[in-house]
Amino acid sequence: MQAREQLKASKQRKKADRIVLECQEQAYWLTNKPCPGAFDVLDLGPERCNVLSSRVALNTDHYKREIEHSRRALGRNRVKSSICLESFMKYSEQYLHHDPIMSGCLPSNPWISDDTSHWTINTDMVDTPTRLRVESWSFNFMELLNDSMGRREFMIYLEKEFS
């Protein structure tokens, strides 16, 4: 029953989706090859049982290697490439304006020009923090706590909330 449903679902998919799924499966098998000495279905094909020269001596060392290989395989993190690329795109979009290489240094790069206003704006304690500095606090809680200005603002907020 399940095979019929899978076949029906694969026929309904678009061609581009089928190609992506095939590439994902191919990448999975490339990265998750069986341990050395074991039969590989993809390399040898259905006639692998007839190949006597590639047989492995089944002794305790072989099984120890196989168990160790399986343990390492279980410990690996596996993430689909589409999920990985999606999270990379979110990360890139989030930090785009805060990356001095991608967006440039505002107001100007003090390493190139003699203008030191960038250092003045981003000192530890200023009257009003820059918009980019405040946005960086929203990325994660550690960004807020690592910034002395952010810690001060957070303490003021906690005092207002009677925390």
Automatic annotation (TrEMBL):
A Pfam family annotated for this chain is: RGS_DHEX
Transmembrane spans: none
SUPFAM superfamilies xrefs: Regulator of G-protein signaling, RGS, Transducin (heterotrimeric G protein), gamma chain
Q: In its keyword annotation, does this UniProt entry include tRNA-binding?
A: no
| Keywords, ordered alphabetically | Signal transduction inhibitor
Highest taxon of source: Eukaryota
Q: Name one GO cellular component term.
A: plasma membrane
The protein here is known as Regulator of G-protein signaling 11-like
Give the organism, scientific name: Salvelinus namaycush (Lake trout)
